[in-house]
Each structure stands twice: as structure tokens, then as C-alpha cells.
Amino acid sequence: MAPAGVEGVEDDIREGAVTGHDSDALSGAKHRSITSDPEPHRRSASLVILALDTTTRAGSVAILRDGDILTEISGDASLTHGQRLPAEFRLALDAAAVALDDVGLLAVVAGPGSFTGLRVGIAAIQGLAFSRGLSVVPVSALEAIGRHTFRRTGPDTLGAPWIDAQRGEVFAILYDGDVERPLVAASSASPQATLESVLASARDVVGSRAVAFAGDGAVRYKDAIARTLGPRAAVLEPAPALAAEAARIAARHPERAVAPHAIVPIYVRRPDAELARGRAGR
Question: What are the structural domains, with CATH classification, of the chain?
């Protein structure tokens, strides 16, 4: 049985429904077609993956088929994810000329990121997964940014995904040329404390090597990065949309797929609501 609040997602996608808005409300969505299919849609045995990211205000939806990203749509950050979903699924499927019936696997960026965004995105994916009988590959946002970084820089660079955690903090991790080799574990701290932790924990490895920072946290705090690390640090701009990377990870690691009820959010730090309850209980 699907969890409360996720029923009807499939019907909404098929009907193109947008809760509280008409289709014009999504005109701010940015479509990016990475590969195109010149032929009209037709059913095939190809693996089609639909991936969703709601860890940032804009978020994104992507469609992958047999390793090729057909389309990636970045959302309109002026609208909440609750206002835009599940209609953005329909937009992405239409842009990719793919039918909902052809989707064989789902992926969702499970955090860290906006706590509200995570809840909305995971619920939307769960609703679609339950209605279609599909499995879901949960993806770490830090891993997705790390893979994006190394595709741009190569394996000789240290990769430092930073996600804006609000409250003057970043979710961060440091990788040594590959996401399978984390040098510093995922953390949530101020930008300066994060940089000091990197230098203290991995000084021998960091040395004079170039460090590529990526993600909305890196873009927001690029001045602090430059002050601390100088010219060996580069901040990759703009911050990448993550749905396409999540789809690639799902295609590469289908063994990570779980039943929809088994998706576990990746928080790194406790949600703000829990922290507030803890303070009130003192």
C-alpha cells in the first residue's frame, strides 16, 4: 500500500495536472535536451530512467534511455516543488518523447539538501513507484555533484562538493579523484570550519593539488574558499542540476534500487524541526 499523500500521482502525470496552477505556471522551467531522438516515440525494450532532484529550490527532472540523457528540465525556483510536481514529470516525458509506460526505473536525489524539498520529492517518487510497480535508486546529492565535477576536471583533481545548508552552513565532502575515495567524510558546518577541517584532516594529500569546488554552496561561499585556499581552488559555475547525474548513477548502479517504502532521506544533520523540538525540550 502506498503511503498517505502519494496516491494519484500517475493519474496526475497522465492528465498533466498542476495542483493549484495551470500549465502556464511552469513556463519558467528550463528545458535542456542533451540528445535527441529524430523518430516519433515508439515502444521498445530499452531501459528508461526517470530521475528527480528536489534538494534545491529549482530542482530538476531528467529522462535517460540506454545511457543517453534525453532531456533535463530545471524547475522554476519561484514556485515550490509541491506546486510543480507531478506536472514536471509530464513536461520531461513530453520533451523526451517518452511514454510513462516505458519508464522502467526511477531515481531520486535523497539528500542532503532542503528538508521540505526532500520530503516532497521522495513522496512524489514513491507515489509514482507504487502506482507503476517500480523500484527506486536513491542517490546522494554529494555523490552526484562529485561525479559531475570529475567528468569536468578528470581524476587528478580533488573534488569538493558543497551544498548550501542554510543557517550559514554547507553540506560538504572531499573526494580524491573519484567518488569511491572520500578523503573527508560528509559534514555540516560553516564554510570556514569546513575548510579548516579539510586542511587539518587531509593536509598531506591536499598539499598543492588543485581542488575543484562545485554545488550551490561552493558558488555562494566562493570568496571564503578563495581567501583560504588561494589559486589552487577553483569553483565550478554554475551549480549543476542533479537529475541527469542521478539518472546516470541509477543506470550504472541498478543494484542500489530499493522498494519505494525503503527510501531513506540523507540528512547529514538533524532536520530543523527536530532541532527546534530538542531546544524546546531542554
Answer: 9-141+241-280 (3.30.420.40), 142-235 (3.30.420.40)
